[in-house]
Design goal:
By secondary structure, the protein is an alpha+beta fold. It is about 40% helix and about 25% strand. It has two domains: about 140 residues, Fructose-1,6-Bisphosphatase, Chain A, domain 1 (2-Layer Sandwich); about 120 residues, D-Maltodextrin-Binding Protein, domain 2 (3-Layer(aba) Sandwich). The protein has eight helices and 14 strands. The radius of gyration is 18 Å and the shape is globular.
Amino acid sequence: MTAGETRLLQQLQEVAVDAARRAGDLLVDALAGPRVVDRKSTSTDLVTEMDRAAEQLIVESILDQRPDDGILAEEGSDRTGSSGVRWIIDPVDGTTNYVYGHPGWGVSIGAELEGQPALGVVADPAHGDLYTAVTGGGAFCNERSITVSDCTELGQALAATGFGYAPERRRAQARTLLDILPEVRDIRRVGAAAVDLCAVARGRVDVYFEAGLSAWDLAAGAVIATEAGATVLSLDGDRPRPGSVMAAPPALVEPLLELLERSGAAALGV
């Protein structure tokens, strides 16, 4: 990496950290009042006025400092840029948790440089945590270095996963757990992909897998998990992609992929 690229990544991280913190503060303050809730793809796929307000704050904050950058954001603030930098934003990852006042939600801001993952910032305001990583620079929580767990046996691994919104997908995902649950220590379902990937990054869970995600769900968390030492792939062992992601310490990658194949979970991410 050149000195110029290093300086650019540092600048991008500063921009993302500032935006994530400000959005987190906005969202926490709003928890004291009523929340206006709409529905998107299904009756269980929620969006609030605060998702939109937080996205507007983040986008304006970024473009104020970097007006030539591209944007891909969950609530539709998309724009084509000319700088080679594209931001991928989920203003409230875990909206259902946010609506219920459950702590499993976060602000997720990732960035690509010339189409390649470059950085991830995830704010977890409910726990006072800020996760950061730039490609090649390691992963941090509140400026302290973090690494994945040292678990080497899948049977001793605490796994995290999530479920889609469509009833048919939920039924299929539930069926796969009949084969997965007996093969791991236990399973946790938080309901926020970025938060789950950060949990892998700091060893709070050992592995994570999920189908049905969008680019903004995993852009930031995948960089953070990777820089913490996780191997991040699709459910069938290919490069991670929207709709299909798993993260695990290197020793657990092959046994996890085999289990996902046997259970039918890998096929759900195709």
